Amino acid sequence: MIINFKFSFIAVFFLLFFRNGSSQIVYNYQELDNFISKAIQDFEVPGLSVGIIKDGEVVFNQSFGYRSNSTREAVTSETVFGIASCSKAFTAACMAILVDEGLLNWDDRVIDHYPEFQMNDPYITSEMRIQDLLCHRSGLQTFDGDLLWYGTNYGREEVVKRIRNREISSSFRSEFGYQNVMFIAAGEVIKKVSGKAWDEFVKERIFNPLEMNSTTTTNSTFTKDMDIALPHIAGKPLDFINYDNCGPAASINTSVDDFLQWVKLMLGKGVFDNDTIFSKDQYYALTTPYTLINAGPGETVGGTHFYTYGLGWFMFDYDGRKIIQHGGGLPGFHSKIAFIPEENTGFIIIANQVSGLVEAVYKEILDLYLKRFRKGLGHPIFGK
Length: 384
Fold this sequence. Notes:
The protein has twelve helices and 14 strands. Helix 2 (about 30-40) packs antiparallel against helix 12 (about 355-370) and helix 3 (about 90-100) packs parallel to helix 7 (about 180-195). It is α+β, with helices and mostly antiparallel strands. The chain is globular, with a radius of gyration of 22 Å.
């Protein structure tokens, strides 16, 4: 009886503790700050901003280094960086808004809304659906068509028009091929359906209600007196390169303060401060796997077993959790955004030089919340 009593007491204790005490975990954000401060020196990156939201609260918002190695002006939480392909999720969310309003459906044919759209294969032209534009399964290879917009004077419509001359490399929907031009085409669909250019639509329907007041879809209006991070390569500042012609794929510029508002919206599954930007149904449409990506053998305990792409988002499993994330990279800018829905956590990292630093900080933050045992930090509740 004594043994049973002790066993029952311990069982009840653990049940109550893990039920009510798990939310009392204390995370060592000072240790994270120290890690980043050292890492930015080790990787020789000029500037960096990092923000984390946990359980609805901003628990970490720190900036490091310089806007420019020439002027040595400090990066702040309001410093604007280019976020490159992290722009894609905004475009997908714009589509979700239009779906909510009944102006299109995910499985609508692209040509029914954008008759000028054409691929090299007539079958793909006829069968390409709205969702196909956003999940990298068009039959084109990764980065096919990028030289149509990078460093050219072609407008978005002309870029999409010229992709019809690019030969298809794989069968439709059979392989993952990372595509910027298809997202540019998605922006043209938004224009056709809403009557507003993608830039105007995303500002009106996302930036403004989220109070992302420093966020832009172009760098053409930047001036020297603005709180702007300059792009760098090998520590040397560059002039800005204009990316207006790939806008829906990669042209958004934002600060850590503004970007955290977007994190808050995604953690709210489309709701921001009681304002529904898009429905929960559309949130799940955006974060449902559509295209499989090779994740390797998937035989490591606590590792990754599956890797997929949804609508504007990569998804994979890590230490038993679903990770929703996207990265962005253009000459002189590097970014990362990630969510761990089961931990009610999301975070962003933005830097003004491409390097391994962003991925290092990204993994460190994931491990802060997930791999607490394996890092030698002891039990997350009971300590070392």
